[in-house]
Amino acid sequence: MLLFRAPVAQAVFRTNGWRFALSQAGPLLTRNYSSDVKEFKQEADTNESDDSASTTGVIDQELSETVLYFDHVYPWSTSNSNIKQYLRFVLSPIQNGFSKEDVHNKITKLSSPLPLGAKITDLVPLQRDCGAFVKFQVPKDVTTKDFIVQIKSNLQKHRDQYNQNIFRKVFNKMYHHFPSVYAVKGTPWIEDLRRFPSLKLKVIFEGPSLTEEELYVLFRRYGLIVDIIPGSESATLIFRLIRSAICAKNCVTGITLNKAETTLHLQYIPIKRVNYIADFVINHQRIAIPVIIALLATIAVLIFDPIREWCIEQKITKKFYLSSYKDNKFVKCMSSPFKTIKSWLNNSYDYIDQQIHALEGDKHEEDSDPAVELKMGTLWSERFEKAKQLKLWIYENINTYIVIKGPKGSGKEEFVLEHALTDDQNLNRHYLVVNCDALSKSRSDSSLIRNASNELGYFPVFTWANSISQFIDLGVQGLTGQKSGLSESKESQIKNMFSLTSQAIRKVALADYEKYKKSVVKKNSKIPEGQEMIQVLKEDEYLQHFPEVKPIIVVNHFARKSESTANDFIYPMVAEWTSNLIQNNLAHVIYITSDVGSIQHLNDSLPNQVFKTISLSDASRQNAKQYLLNQLKLQDSRSIEGCLEPLGGRMLDLQSFVRRIKSGEAPQDAIEEMVSQAAEQITTFFLNNHRLDKDVDNNWTPAQIWTIMKLLTECGEINYEKLVNFPLFNNSDDTLSTLSTLEKFDLISLTRDKGMLDKIQMGRPLFNAAFKNLIEDLRIYKMYEIDLLQSLIKVENAKIKKHEEELIAISTVGGVENRLSYLTKKIESSNSTVVEYESKIAEIKKMKEKTEGRGFFKLF
Q: DSSP assignment, residue 158?
């Protein structure tokens, strides 16, 4: 505040802010805010020792003193309203470089040379506003106005000297870096409230208001004014620069005008931050929400997809798998102590087990040695040639789309992974096994995505995000009337996972391509001039010439349809994915399937492709016998000779038989129990089809199953042409569907000749003995034989009804005697057949336990 020397009043009276003074000029009644604040401070500080400006907010001033305001003596980065001031550790050199003493020295330098007798008596820093109030002692022979002019002149000289450097001048023009000085006209209020500077000032009038022109005259000296909004009680000033608003607020606050009738109080008008993004989202939801979701999805793809692709690559290459380095000498050296300790523990357990068996008098069988385990892995010698053929097809690298077919339990997975791939050092480096069973049997969308990620090595995956996105999508649809697209179907998510896997496979296949190009360039540099250079192969040509660099994709348990109809899309999608790999020449694909109908998916994905097929059958009798001898450590086969015929060569049944023998069962008891279990499985699953789950496609009747069982027991195999002549199978379309379903459930096996169905055989060798066991059981035989005959009677009755309806229709028509005679004979023939079936039913009901001479297979 700029204080002028004024006559001292002889008496002062104050009431509610009004001041009545008796002076030399006469009585004067005013409302003086400035004097009120000073007098109030004096009354409040009666018993206080600290009455400084930092404590009270008011600067005490003698008559011979004046107060000036210097702005920009602190850098803006130290202001409390700047975000940088919170980084105190980073800005500690800046903060420490502007202490109160440093500011005092800076202002002294800018104000010098001072008139004789003038000095700085007090300095009140205002770091929030980047300025300071400075109280000067004015010499007696210098007026206050001349003193202020001298200070401003000195400051201008220092500014001109500072601007002699062209770079400093440009910097000062851009950022108004150099300090300025202003006279304090009012009573400054030094507060540290949370009121930060802004471009807008609110001017509160205590007394008569000022006009727009008067406000302009008063405030223009502090900087360019953008707008003035006058009012009766308050006005609003908008400055161009925040520095101007700070100077005006600190210098004009508390000024008294209009002959002490009007006092001005200035406040910063807080800056109202407008969040344009939030405003746009709230007011334009249909546009903003899809855009935000698209941006989030893009960011997620940019962050997580490279991580997922890298994880898939490691799943294929197994670079960080410990098993990949089992032959490394350093790994062997580090793992040898653990193997030694493990061996000690196993030997101690074996020793204790042997002693217990010795005390109990049991014969203890030692575990099989590595040679026997090797024989277990190389069970069928006739498959060695097929394994060689599989490797040859891969190395030929001509449309390596290979299908391995065979019944369940025939060792297809072992044949591919152990016999064909693991034994070859070039082929076992990069391969990926996709188990379709893990995908098709998933019970929920989250488990499906999780199982797919485990199979492909797709990590990280957020299964919980799928549920959350569904709620978000529902909310967005309620707000905007349309779906946001955030919630993806499980089909699209699985498709995206396989698409990213294709990228990883391509990257793995071309991992050594750059090394190949460098090696060719190096070889060309050694070739003498004039000779033909080696051409660098393109990527597709490189993959065609080096088949070992392409990963091998093994699709296991591929089928025609899933047990759950919700996951039926899995098999066509996998077929489409692998067909793209083959068409782009990125990988070798091997399908392992026991469902012949699944080949249709492959034909749909690659209609012009001829698949290379390897069919695996059960082991021969001699190999099965040798396998049992090796596993049971027998010298001769007399004890198991009677068990070989029911078991056949199915690997699962052979292993189950071995486990039973090792657990202590006698060979004959073991095989009888296995046959009994197989018979129970057939009865429960196929004959009692009313007990099946509703999701199972049981498009057969017990009578059809019973007929097939009897024919296979009698003949071993059935000609398809013969089967369709039977009344229950005369509809070829329904018969093909039924037989395909039974083949899927491994009850029968279908043989095709030139793509046409030729013969029907047993699905499992053990089922042959199970069929005989069921047919020889009189109670079961009577039940299902009667059911078969009743089904045949229904067929004949349906024929009779159809012929009778035709007879009634043409009975009134003349000249159709031949047709009437034909229909009559048909009715008589069907009727005699029904009578024959009924008589057989009566005979079966009278049958006793004696089973000889039944004539089971002379039904038709």
A: H
What distance in Å separates the CA atoms of residue 673 and residue 294, rounded to the nearest whole number?
62
Contact yes or no for 43/56 (Cβ under 8 A):
no
Measured from the Cβ of residue 632, the count of other Cβ atoms closer than 10 Å reads 17
Give domain status of residue 339, yes or no.
no
Question: Is residue 340 a part of any domain in this protein?
Answer: no
Which of 166-170, 817-821, 822-826 is the least confident region? Answer: 166-170
What mean pLDDT comes out for the span 120-148? 89
Give the pairing of strands 588-593 and 552-558.
parallel
Sole residue written with tokens 């546009």: 287
Residue 450, pLDDT > 80, answer yes
Co-location of 562 and 482 in the same domain: yes
Phi, psi angles (nearest 5°) of residue 286: -70, -25
Residue 119 φ/ψ, nearest 5 degrees? -160, 165
Instruction: Say if residues 111 and 151 touch (Cβ distance below 8 Å).
Output: yes
User: How buried is 170 (Cβ within 10 angstroms: 0-12 exposed, 13-18 middle, 19+ buried)?
Assistant: exposed
Query: Which CATH number covers residue 227?
Result: 3.30.70.330
The answer to whether position 677 is within a domain reads: no
- CATH code of the domain in which 77 resides: 3.30.70
Is residue 112 domain-shared with residue 213, that is, in the same domain?
A: no
DSSP secondary structure code for residue 222 in this structure: G
Question: What SS3 state is found at 589?
Answer: strand
Distance separating alpha carbons of residues 487 and 160, to the nearest angstrom = 66
> Does residue 676 fall inside a structural domain?
no
Nearest CA-CA partner of 154 in 115, 122, 186: 115
* Domain shared by 479 and 576, yes or no: yes
Whether 118 and 212 map to the same domain: the answer is: no
Give the CATH number of the domain where residue 591 resides.
3.40.50
Whole-angstrom distance, CA of residue 122 vs CA of residue 106:
14
Residue 433 has pLDDT above 90, yes or no: yes
The β-bridge relationship of strands 431-435 and 552-558 is: parallel
The total of other beta-carbon atoms located within 10 Å of residue 437's CB is: 15
Q: How would DSSP label each residue in 478-517?
A: HHHSS--S-S--HHHHHHHHHHHHHHHHHHHHTTTHHHHH
Please list the alpha-helical segments (H only) found in 257-369.
276-283, 285-317, 329-360
Same domain, residue pair 406 and 439: yes
- 397 and 540 in a common domain: yes
Q: CA end-to-end span of the chain, whole Å?
A: 126
73 touches 111 (CB < 8 A): no
Domain count of the fold of the chain: 4
Distance from CA of residue 260 to its chain's centroid? 74
Domain around 836:
778-860
The answer to whether 711 and 723 have CB atoms below 8 angstroms apart is yes
Residues 6+ apart with CB under 8 A from 601: 558, 560, 571, 572, 574, 575
Q: What is the pTM of this model?
A: 0.62
Q: Show the tokens assigned to 291.
A: 């855009």
Q: From the DSSP assignment, how many helices (H) and strands (E) are in the chain?
A: 32, 20
User: Distance between CA 505 and CA 488 in Å, rounded?
Assistant: 25
Phi, psi of 730 (to 5 degrees): -75, -10
CA-closest candidate to residue 845, choices 782, 784, 790, 776: 782
Helix axes 817-845, 778-810, angle to 10 degrees: 160
> 546 phi and psi, to 5 degrees?
-125, 80
* Encoded tokens for 433: 């096994």
The pLDDT assigned to 552 comes to 95
Buried b (16+ CB within 10 A) or exposed e, 115-133: eeebeeebbbbbbbbbbbb
Looking at the structure, tell me whether residues 380 and 497 fall in a common domain.
Answer: yes
Residues contacting residue 129 through CB under 8 Å, at least 6 positions apart: 71, 79, 197, 246, 250
Residues in a beta bridge with 200: 238
417 DSSP assignment: I
Supply the pLDDT for residue 77. 57
